[in-house]
Amino acid sequence: MQTGEEVLRGLMIDGLGGDAAAHASLLRQIVPLLRGFYRRRVRGADDDVEDLVQETLIAVHTRRGTYDRDRPFTAWMFSIARYKMIDHFRRAGRLRPIGDLEETLVVEDFEAGLIARLDIDDLLAGLPPKQARMIVATHIDGLTTAEAAAAGGIGQSDVKVSVHRGLKALIAKVQRTQR
After folding, report:
1. Where is the RNA polymerase sigma factor 70 region 4 type domain (predicted)?
2. Most-buried pick from 63, 83, 128, 165 (CB within 10 A)?
3. H helices present in 1-155, as ranges
């Protein structure tokens, strides 16, 4: 059984290969994921959420040539979504740069984020794949249990059990390394 990530990645690769139906299907299937992502993060009118979803769909379409076929599709898509959200906050006046501090923070945050991501990837690599995917979906990508279940093609209770067992294993692993 393929996971939601595998299906979406396959549709993206097929779309890059010229399959217009696969590309259209991909764009339809990511709409609920994007709506959920933005609803949890953007306070305001539903119009703002829908605008962000549409902007992200356009960016996924126009920037599809930058997608690395060897990387997870959802990570690429959610990084685009994060940039669109930041742009939205800037337009709304919720993010204001402070002199040259913004450039410094961007570089420092990027390096710290990259190191943290590598550490997380190392930790998750030791888990069964389903547990790792569900932890990423719910705790990193910010999906609800229902959204992660739909994206993964599994039940909500399976998501909860996978996340619980995976986090328990990660805690034990971290505790062992601290000794």
Report:
1. 118-170
2. 165
3. 4-16, 20-41, 46-62, 73-91, 101-125, 129-135, 145-152
